[in-house]
Design a protein that fits this description.
The chain is mainly alpha-helical and 302 residues long. The chain has helices at residues 44-66, 74-90, 100-132, 139-154, 157-168, 172-195, 200-208, 213-250, 256-265, 270-300, and strands spanning 3-7, 10-14.
């Protein structure tokens, strides 16, 4: 806090060393010799962040330099890749290998797979999230559930799908099981952290009035965190759709992912690949718009 030195009839602010100061210097801001406020001040955290980013950039450049490209000319390959990408995005179309109804049918298969895994995962994760929340469960159960879910999240979705493909066999069952494991672990963490942010005073007041555990959940937790539950669920739905497209060929689940695999790896039709990519892009935009409308209608207005 600034002090004041009496000089005649006027008071002049002084800094912590007793020297006269004025303006931003008295407010604690760092100023240059010309009196301008310094917007970029180097401190320990900024120095560590800059050094880390510089190290990562150097490692990335070194990796590209030392990478074994074989006999492939890097500049020519890069030019061809950019040209194929431009063709894919600017000239999408059917090449005779698939019909438009085939692509639409495959798109709905992938959507159905994403919807099934999201709904099942959200229901299971909701219960596990309640049991993992520190303010709604005991410490032992909470820590145990969080530890198990951390192990599930550590394994990528594609590995879960491959594990169940070996255990169950090719088909949509392996894809559903693989997507469920990672989705449940993801949503359990998101839900439990949201539940732990509920006002503890409201929870204690309900418990003091004799409310049961489920009454506390549906009277205090769910109404306050419904917006976050909806947001996290739709985010996971988008992730599950992307994963359903990616594992369509790996797990033999079919859908538009399998058609994308055929168009790119067997038929080498860049135009069909572009059309399928635009189909997936349209679904992502539609899901985002649907999520926004639901939040406005059922959450914001309430």
């Amino acid at each position: 806090m600034s002090q004041f030195a009496k000089e005649g009839a006027a008071y002049q602010p002084v800094d912590h060393q007793g020297k006269a100061c004025e303006g931003a210097a008295c407010a604690g801001a760092r100023v240059s010799r010309t009196g301008k406020i310094k917007t970029r001040c180097m401190n320990k955290s900024n120095a560590v962040l800059g050094a880390t980013l510089g190290l990562l950039a150097a490692v990335t450049v070194l990796t590209f330099v030392l990478m074994d490209y074989g006999d492939t000319p890097l500049l020519e390959a890069t030019s061809n890749a950019l040209g194929d990408s431009a063709t894919m995005l600017t000239q999408p179309g059917l090449g005779g290998h698939f019909t438009l109804p085939d692509l639409v049918d495959g798109l709905f298969v992938s959507l159905a797979l994403a919807t099934l895994t999201t709904v099942l995962g959200a229901v299971i994760a909701f219960v596990l999230g309640l049991c993992a929340a520190m303010n709604l469960s005991n410490r032992v159960a909470s820590n145990a559930i969080k530890a198990v879910m951390s192990l599930f999240r550590a394994v990528p979705t594609i590995l879960w799908v491959l594990i169940f493909t070996v255990a169950i066999g090719l088909g949509p069952e392996a894809a559903v099981a693989g997507l469920l494991f990672h989705g449940i672990a993801y949503l359990t963490k998101a839900y439990s952290e949201s539940f732990e942010e509920v006002d503890p005073g409201v929870v204690e007041a309900l418990r003091a009035s004799g409310a049961s555990w489920w009454q506390v959940v549906f009277s205090a937790v769910v109404p306050e965190k419904l917006s976050e539950i909806l947001s996290w669920t739709f985010i996971r739905f988008e992730i599950n759709f992307v994963n359903a497209v990616a594992v369509g060929a790996v797990a033999g689940a079919g859908g538009i992912g399998y058609q994308l695999f055929l168009a790119g790896s067997f038929y080498y039709d860049i135009h069909e690949v572009g059309l399928i990519v635009y189909f997936c892009f349209a679904v992502a935009v539609a899901l985002e718009l649907l999520s926004t409308q639901l939040r406005k209608r059922f959450i914001v207005q309430n």
